[in-house]
Amino acid sequence: MKERWALIERVAASEQFSRSARLRDFLLYVGKQSLKEGCPEIHEHEIGAKVFGRPASYDRSADNIVRVNATELRKRIETYFETTGAHEPVIFEIPRGAYRLVFHARPAEQATDAAQSQAGSGHESPPATIAAREDTRPRWRVRRLLWPLVSFSLALACVTLYVQNRALHRAVYPWDNQPALEAFWSGFLDPHRQTDLVLPDDSASVMEDITRDPLTLGDYMSRNFIQQIQSSDMSPDRKQDVFQVLSHNLVTFGAVRSVQSVLSEIPPTYPHYLTLARYFTADQIKRDNVILIGGRKSVPWDDLFDDQLNFVTDYDYARGLQIVRDRNPKAGEQAVYTVHLASDSLIGYAVIASLPNPSHAGNVIILAGTDSDATAAAAAFLGSESQMQNLRNTFGVKQFPYFEVLLKISRLSGTFFDAELVAYRTYPNLH
Known about the structure:
The chain is built from 16 helices and 13 strands. Strands 3, 4, 5, 9, 10, 11, 12 and 13 form an 8-stranded mixed sheet that branches. A 3-stranded antiparallel sheet has the order 6-7-8, with no helix packed on it. The model is unreliable at 110-137 (pLDDT under 50). By secondary structure, the chain is α+β, with helices and mostly antiparallel strands. It has helices at residues 2-12, 21-34, 44-50, 65-82, 114-119, 128-135, 139-172, 179-188, 202-211, 217-222, 224-230, 236-246, 253-263, 282-287, 372-381, 385-395, and strands at 90-93, 102-105, 195-199, 272-276, 289-293, 311-316, 321-326, 336-338, 340-341, 346-356, 363-369, 402-412, 415-427.
């Protein structure tokens, strides 16, 4: 059983799954279920709920996400055993129409019988004197040629196994030899609780730019803002522009980079799910660990924590600027931090908040910048051993408490190169 699970982990850590966390989760889930003793058949509805975060009552006939991903999963498993895993003596597959893994020994390759081939060709056998002379060649010459080839093959196999084991180790233990990152992420993540990564709804942000009217979480969840736009005094053309924007799921490149940074800190065996703010639900934020990527303008879910936050990203509609408010400034802090352009660099600000979720059953991280690149810098901060070690030293603790930090982001040509800690608050009593 251990050997089969190790095989599943090798496949999941291979290059065939390196860019598809969703398919990797799919494989690990059905693999774990398949290895359970007396495991019944794994059903599509179960996978939709456990792997893809669908509600228990979702309609499979209208949502075929499991079947679509299962087809791609079968292809990638087959590709692995044909390429990277060509040396594997045991292989597995997921038969069509089912979701349980089936293991079997790799079929032996059909060897070509040279003697039969030669006999069938009609050529005469060589004279006995020649055959006898060939048989008298010293065998040590053959061995001298064979042993280097065997040694090279064994060395190549050892190197391949070492590289694969290192890749698997890095995937399973992303914080190895990084104590500060381990202290933070092991305290936030839970191998038995799903972590939801919530991308910003930049379509909603653009809508606010057009209407110049802030969007509340209540209106966002109920979609009342659509009726408000329809009944507003905006021109028909402007209303059409707004609805055209809302018909698309706009996501910035900075948000994508944020997800990449965060995913590199989550072991592949830990359940996690990527979604958009407009598809996120109140049940999920109460039940799961959650990472909200973006400020209130594009992630209205941030409003749930507004009364707990000291540093809040906001938007100055009069001047058209993103700002950060310090609600209770301490000595040396500003009440408002505004984005400004320097002669040779772009300065931005980002807020990181680590808090309990509304039910106190899980944890929440808010990553909110004055723009998407500043948000990406905040995500990278949480993946930097040196930055997190400095933060832990600043807090004067071994285990991270719940906290807020305000970062000043310096960039050149749109690429951040420094994140400076400006201010912070810790909330040890929230644990």
